[in-house]
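Appendix B. One record, verbatim.
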Amino acid sequence: MQNVLEAFAQDLQENELRLQAQHHPISGALDFHQRLEFLRFHIDRHRGQVSQLISTMNSL
């Protein structure tokens, strides 16, 4: 997913960040800036979950 996001970031222009992104059934209508911020939060949350799981597994 990293490669896709990097390519998207290269293609997206600053003035396009406030354009409406595709409507999401859970989070609703967001612009690209808001959608990317949410995606970062979501990925960071899962990274934390994976780190915690690995720590738990290593302590067994």
